[in-house]
Amino acid sequence: MMLAAELWAASRSAGLPTAGPDSLDGDCILAAQAILAGGLTDIATIATDNVAPLSRYADARLWETITP
């Protein structure tokens, strides 16, 4: 949650929020979990249909385009 808070603060400071001012920012929480999921050299990919905001923080791709 600390990393999610840092991502949230950085996006707000840059004028690029991913949620409204009264909303919890699930995108930052999800991105932080993906970043922390692996080791230092691992890349966790977020499978989503909401690529634009998530790709600011982590590798995010349309779930339909990911080959298992």
> Biggest β-sheet, characterized?
2 strands, parallel
C-alpha Rg, in Å? Answer: 12 Å
Poorly predicted runs: none
The percent range for strand residues is: 5-15%
Q: Could you give the count of β-strands?
A: 2
Counted by DSSP, the helix tally is 3
Structural class label: alpha+beta
Overall morphology: globular
Instruction: Quote the distance from N terminus to C terminus.
Output: 29 Å
Strand order of the largest sheet: 1-2
Kindly state the percentage of residues in helix. Answer: 40-55%
Overall pLDDT: 89
N-to-C series of helices and strands: HHEHE
Which descriptors apply to this entry?
68 residues; alpha+beta; two-stranded parallel ribbon; 3 helices; 12% strand; globular
